[in-house]
């Protein structure tokens, strides 16, 4: 059992913490979420795109439906495919962060979005806006039952409190 004085570990997309890691070199700091959660949880920053070496700024990547399934590619260069790298990183991250009790992903991201990311066909035509980023999908599969959310689902106090409750319950139920 962890020390009762330690904060519960929760992973979070680095850009939501104000780190300039986005494709455009910017961030998406979510002050109201971070300020509320950092008092309770140990927020562990993760940026899969930076960790696989894409850098910032960078050419954007996107989800693409292919005959081989969903791939993560650059829109301007279909040969530039980082699907394997994101899946491998997610699997190793899940092993390294198996102690986490929640994860807050960046909405609409081809690596981190949850059920709200654009998916394109191979001709760069929009198919839907309900995709899940490759990294997030792999983390969710590797850590079933883990409370996950994105910043758009934590916009009001009630939603944040529900997430806190889910994380605390998950933490309490762990051996």
Overall morphology: globular
Low-confidence stretches: none
SSE order: EHEHEEEHEEEHEH
Number of E strands: 9
Q: Percent of residues in helical segments?
A: 25-40%
Structure classification? alpha/beta
**Tally of helical segments:** 5
Strand order of the largest sheet: 5-4-3-7-8
Main sheet: strands, sense, barrel: 5 strands, mixed
What labels would you give this structure?
175 residues; globular; five-stranded mixed β-sheet; alpha/beta; four-stranded parallel β-sheet
Describe the structure.
The protein has helices at residues 31-37, 48-51, 83-96, 134-142, 157-173; strands spanning 8-13, 41-46, 61-66, 69-74, 77-81, 103-105, 117-120, 126-131, 148-150. With 175 residues, it is α/β, with parallel strands linked by helices. The strands form two sheets. The protein has a five-stranded mixed β-sheet, with no helix packed on it. A four-stranded parallel β-sheet has the order 2-1-6-9. A hairpin with a 5-residue loop joins strand 7 and strand 8. The longest helix is centred in the last third of the chain and has 17 residues, at 157-173. It is globular and about 50 Å long.
Q: What topology does this entry show?
A:
Layout: E1 8-13, H1 31-37, E2 41-46, H2 48-51, E3 61-66, E4 69-74, E5 77-81, H3 83-96, E6 103-105, E7 117-120, E8 126-131, H4 134-142, E9 148-150, H5 157-173
Parallel strand pairs: 1-2, 1-6, 3-7, 6-9
Antiparallel strand pairs: 3-4, 4-5, 7-8
